Amino acid sequence: MGASLLRVSEALIGTPYRYGGADRRGFDCSGLVYFVHAQLGLQVPRTAAAQHAAARPVGRRALAQGDLVFFRTRPAGEVDHVGVYVGADRFVHAPGSGRTVAYGSLEDPWYATRLVGAGRFWVPQVLPGAAHAAP
């Protein structure tokens, strides 16, 4: 499921940023996440803050394709930016007015200092024959 979320996200690269946008005419960051999940039948909240609050937390070392990375871009505000994790410290996001959906990097100092966490709404698939933890 994570790889599918990523494929849908990457297919939208180049789509214009549109404040409040959540369709192919344009996206804001949380609208992109909302749309991508909806394409795969997953319901998520509409804002970055609500997505952050509702997502199952994922540690930085456990990030997988399709996970969400959350940022606080204002010093005293709530989470207000989100992207879809690609791998290798990269993510797809709608960066802001006048720009288009694009890749970002967690290694970019601007994003690195504003990263507040990661999460997911999808459930990793258990491979047949894999060991299961006892309840």
Tell me what you see in this structure:
The protein is α+β, with helices and mostly antiparallel strands and 135 residues long. It has one domain: endopeptidase domain like (from Nostoc punctiforme) (endopeptidase fold (from Nostoc punctiforme)). The protein has helices at residues 2-11, 29-39, 48-54, 109-112; strands spanning 22-23, 26-27, 56-57, 68-71, 81-87, 90-93, 102-105, 115-120. It has a six-stranded antiparallel sheet with strand order 3-8-4-5-6-7. Helix 1 (2-11) crosses helix 2 (29-39). It starts with a helix and ends in a 15-residue tail after the last strand.
At the third CATH level, what is the topology name?
A: endopeptidase fold (from Nostoc punctiforme)
- The name of the CATH superfamily reads endopeptidase domain like (from Nostoc punctiforme)
Q: Please report the total strand number as a whole number.
A: 8
The second-level CATH architecture is Alpha-Beta Complex
How far apart are the termini?
Answer: 24 Å
Helix and strand element order: HEEHHEEEEEHE
How do the strands and helices of this protein lay out in sequence?
Layout lengths: L1 H10 L10 E2 L2 E2 L1 H11 L8 H7 L1 E2 L10 E4 L9 E7 L2 E4 L8 E4 L3 H4 L2 E6 L15
Antiparallel strand pairs: 1-2, 3-8, 4-5, 4-8, 5-6, 6-7
Jot down its keywords:
alpha+beta; 4 helices; endopeptidase fold (from Nostoc punctiforme); 135 residues
